[in-house]
Structure formats: C-alpha cells, structure tokens
Amino acid sequence: MNAVSQIAAPSVVNHVIHASYDGQDPEALTVWVLFHAPKKQISCSDYLGPADEFLARVDVEVDSPGPSSVIKSIPLRARAGTARVHAPKDLQTLYLSTSVGSTAKQQLPLKNAGNISVCLEVKISNQDSCFAVEPEDLFLLPGEEREVTVLFSPKNITTRQSTLKILVLPSGPQYEVVIKGEVQSEGNRPVSTAAAGLDIPPILSNKQFLAWGGVRLGSSVQKKLTLRNASPSVTQHLRLLIRGQDQECFQLQSIFGSEERLTSSWELKIRPKEDTNIYLVFAPTRVTCCFAKLEIKQLGIQSWPGIKFTIPLSGYGGTSSIALENVEKLTGTYVVTLDGLLPSGLRTASFHIRNTGSRAAYVKALCFAGLRMKAVMDPQVMRVSPEKFVLREGTHEVVTITWNPIPKEMNFHKTNALLSTVSFFCGDEVSRQQYRR
C-alpha cells in the first residue's frame, strides 16, 4: 500500500431503529460512506507511480450502558490516482471528407496514461450536427488503449466543424478534439478501393516487420527499411504514422541537412522507380515487451482513398549482461587453471557467472578441442556443470569445469598446456521463449 488512511477521530453516526412487530416490515437504515481523496499537486509531465490506496472500516455496535461489542464490521477500501487520457498528437484535429448521402469514418485511439481506471463519456458538442461517435462510453484500465470511431454523414454541401468532447467521469478532466468535415461534389466522389484495385500504384518494402529484440533502458537502436515506388510514372505522396499500445517507444528519424529529428508522423514524396530509406528508432522506457505498427498511407490522390500498408514493430526493454568472476582475465579472453587433483584422477575448477543486466539470461556451455573451436570434446573427458541454465537478473551461478584425462594426457598437469576452449553462449531468456513459440 502506498498510503493508508489515518483518521484522528472516528466518524460516528447514531441512529435509533425501532422494533418491529408481527406483520410489520422491519425498519431499514441506509448509511452513506463518502471518500474525499486528498489534494495532490502534480504537473502533466510528472511521473505517475502506482495509485494511493486507503483503508478503513465501519463497525456496527449496539449502544448500551454496559460494554459495547461489534456485531458487524464492513471493510472499506478506496484508491486515489491521476486520470490522464492521451490521443496521438497528429490527431488533435480530425479531417473527414465524403459526399452527401455517404459516410466517412475516422478512428481515434484513446489511451489511459494515468494510474487508475477511467470511465469516459465521448460525445459530439452539437448533437444535431452531421457528426457521430461510436461508442459513446468507454472503460479503460491503466495503460489500456481503445479506439472510438467518428462518423461524418453530410446532409448538404456545407462544410461542417464540431468538437469531440472526452469527459472522464464523474467530474473530469475533459479533453477536446476538433472535427472538420468537408463535402465532396459528385464529380469528385472517390471510387471504391475494390474498383480502383488494379490502378493502385504499388509501394514495395524490403521488410514485412521490424523486430529490435532487447535494448538497454536509456539507450536507443536504429533500424532501416526501404520503400520503393514501383510506379513507372506516378509520384507517390505518403504519410507515415506510428500507432499502437507502445507507440511512444518507437519514433521515425528524419534528417534535414545536418539536423536529425524524431517524430511519430512524417510525410514524404517518392518519385517513380525511386527508393527511399526510412529510419526508425526504438528507445524503451521500461522493462517490458513493446508493440506498435508503422502505417503507410497514400495521400494526395482522390482515386485511391484510405489505402494503408502496415508494418508491425516490436522490441523489449532491458537486456541481460553476463560477467565471469574468480577467473584470470587476459586480453579478450579468460583463463582457468585446473588444479586440485582428486583421488579419482579428476581435476576441477569453479568460478561464478553473474548476470548484471535487467533481464534473465539463458546460458549454455560447450567445450571445444583447441582455440579454433571446430571439434567438440567428449563430455566424458571435459564437461561443464551445469551445462545450461537460466540466470535471473542480479543473481549468479557457480560453474564447475571437470577434466577426466585419458592415460596419454596424464602428464599434462605438469605443464601449462591448453586443454580445452570453453565457450559460453548467452542471450536474453525472453527472446529464446519468443523464438520457441
């Protein structure tokens, strides 16, 4: 619990409940319990920890001259936090376009960026307008994202504008999104996607998805994909937009001269038969798996409205980091001396492998004959125990190397001969589990 309510003096309510007689309904009493969350000053940019929790109890006692006893206790629990609702910055104003008698739709993602669950009431400021929204009520858990659909159904050729109001029940805050509707004439009415399917200028990508794997918190990793305008004559006007539950961790990197900018949306033009490199950056802010998508939409040509291509984006924050302890370190390698000849003729050495990262690591050992690491040694002669294991973050494992020399190797202990090269292959356990699935 982050906070537990402490009341200087208990709140007491006295009430007389009269006795009931045969044939009479017993008297009932309704008691209202009010919770007033303490005031807490917090700015829009402040980090939100978990919500505060408050505990109390209602004791029901019989008021009598003698010692009183509790006949019933009802536990009370309340949570106080901050409500924040985020929408993509590039969708602070929604533009919809269609002809009279038709309906245009636009999705608006809403994300609960606060630390408590919220009930949202979404409505259009002017109920008699040509705009509507579905659904009008939303319930979002912390971190959850859902979409509402804004509809524009013009009844005449007049351009419309309204406001989409998003109210956090019961008493705010309230957010507003401007909606603008443009009415197209019949002559410019766009044809359907199916009808124009053969004429859509093709956009090709060298990647069907982008997966970063693990990235250390506080760091960022760039990846590149290439888009090609396969049309022989049409210049493509494209709009790139990153969306999804973890869209804040992925950004587009655009370069203007010597200046680099990070953004969540970008517009560009690709000439016929031209290739353009798109750079994306993944910068995780927490130890969790992150997912989003890159939407590529064609603009500027009314003959192909709303054509979108989607490239999934994924990665996870935090990585494992393996270090060897209690071994002799040389340039680029480690040396372990096998000593302590046992009565059985075995020679052993033990050391620690520690995970100093923020993710669990999977470690596997292999013993090779020589430095070139081409031939694996017989496990009856040289073995590592444990051979493979999962090492959680902040922990260590004691690893033992055991050598059981064959007769012709018995004299090796008198010299500093190289017996074997032991390689430890390691990686993030979360990545191994993902590949196994």
TrEMBL record:
Gene3D superfamilies: Immunoglobulins
Chain ranges of the Cep192-like domain: 3-83, 86-183, 324-437
GO cellular component, as recorded: centriole; cytoplasm; pericentriolar material
Cross-referenced InterPro entries: Cep192-like_D2 (IPR054086), Cep192-like_D3 (IPR054089), Cep192-like_D5 (IPR054091), Cep192_Spd-2-like_dom (IPR054090), Ig-like_fold (IPR013783), Spd-2/CEP192 (IPR039103)
Domain Cep192/Spd-2-like, residue spans: 201-318
Pfam families on file: Cep192_D2, Cep192_D3, Cep192_D4, Cep192_D5
GO biological process terms, semicolon-separated: centrosome duplication; centrosome-templated microtubule nucleation; mitotic spindle assembly; protein localization to centrosome
GO MF entries: protein kinase binding
Domain of life: Eukaryota
PANTHER family listed in its UniProt record: CENTROSOMAL PROTEIN OF 192 KDA (PTHR16029:SF11)
Protein name as it appears in the record: Abnormal spindle-like microcephaly-associated protein ASH domain-containing protein
